[in-house]
Amino acid sequence: MASLQTIIDGVRADPGLKSSIPKTKIDKGVDAARRMNDVLLTVLEQINALDDGIVSVGEMREVSEITYRTPEYFRAFILGHGNDAGRTTGFHHVQNDGGTLLFQGRNFIDTVADAIYHFGFQIRNGRYFNEDGNDNERVDDVAGWLNYFLFGKNTIFGTDGADELSSGKYSKAFRAAASEWWYAGDGRDKIWADKGNDRIFGGAGADQSGGGDGRDRMYGEAGNDTLWSDDGRDSIYGGAGDEEMGGGAGGDMLDGGEGNDTIYGWTGNDRIYGGDGNDDAHGDNGHDRMFGGAGADSFSGGSGEDFIQGGSGRDELGGGDQSDTVDGGEGADRIYLWEEGSARDVLVFRLGDSGLTPDEMDYVEGFVSGRDKINLSSLGPMTYRADDYRGGGQASCYFAEETLLIDANGDGQTDMKITFRYTADLKAVDFIFG
Question: Which of 230, 347, 355, 366 could form a disulfide with 338 if both were Cys (CB 3.0 to 4.6 A apart)?
């Protein structure tokens, strides 16, 4: 059951408040908060706003209207809210009295709790206005803060415009709130998360999102978005549009989704999925796993022992430094294995991955006979021949004029060709057969 006890606990725990005013005043402030909590929870239950685990900005507008228009609710709300004109009453017993706890970089009692306890006043230009007729905090911010105290889900709402949303410091009492949920909404938004395990939903528009430290999950959604994480094992989903995304430090998962995406794994053992579209992906440091999907992709593993799979389409794949496994998949792919040192790369081919004409064939550069391997195990038992097929129902392959020719079923006919540019010869030891 939803509760607002965490606000009460925060008021009682605030060290600045305890050192500035007597306990009797704190008790009066707590009693006022409880009175307003009862009204707020009653109205939220009345409109079924607690059923889905998140209170929206629209629902907070509805709460304001119902509370203001219902005499019973509004009287109880005003008694709890109180005033500081003349005799101090209600929640004003603890406001501006030395509270030091911070919530999202704001003073917890004087700003955050005070703003939540404006829920019964009317709204003007997206803000509550108070008993003096002055503007208070944005309804969007209040709805977001309230979700933490109700459900433990600290939420930051954007608008339909171009928002710049950022986080702030949290006192130790609210350290769990540093893991935030961001809903940017429509518009070209800028979202800057900080420490914590955040969830970022960019919504429509060409957004820029920064995940900060922690294990973040970032969703670009609609639009051509830019998404960058920092330290931590993050998950980044591009969605529709042409995204640019980077994983930062840590073993990240990056999925470009639809569109022509540019993806950087950076440091760590990353998993990169290009998805649909013509994607450009770089594994960079670490032992990365990269999957191209549909489209003509360009993948580079960088340093580390990488696994690269092109998927369907005419892909360009480069293993980079160290010993990599490269699987071009369907389509006429270009595979580059050039590297310094003694890395041992493995090329994986299946029947149909490469065609018979120059326009359909896979093209390989940088293969070193005696060091690198060609994995044809998916074709079953096979032998390597010096200059022709074995035939007689026995699958075999041979190499001539920079081309590997493959008879997959032993009928003596060529089923697949692969070009190995700048490779003078191949040997039986270069192959992995089934």
Answer: 366
Q: Vertex 258, ends 181 and 291: CA angle to 5°? A: 95
94-103, 126-135, 286-295: least confident range: 126-135
45, 31 contact by CB (below 8 A): no
What pLDDT digit, counting tens, does each position of 193-211 carry? 999 999 999 999 999 999 9
Torsion over CA: 374, 379, 385, 386 (sign): negative
Q: Is the pLDDT of residue 1 over 70?
A: no
Question: What tens digit of pLDDT does each residue of 10-34 get?
Answer: 999 999 999 999 999 999 999 999 9
Q: Across-strand partners of 307?
A: 289, 325
Q: Are strands 416-421 and 403-407 parallel, antiparallel or unpaired?
A: antiparallel
Burial of 10-23, coded b for 16+ CB within 10 Å and e otherwise, reads: bbeebeebbebbee
- Residue 333 CA, chain-centre distance (Å), reads 30
Tokens 């051509």 identify what position?
A: 224
Domain ranges of the chain: 5-150, 167-232
Pair of tokens at residue 246 = 């980077």
Spatial CA neighbour of 104 closest among 55, 152, 156: 156
Identify the band that residue 342 occupies on the pLDDT scale cut at 50, 70 and 90.
confident
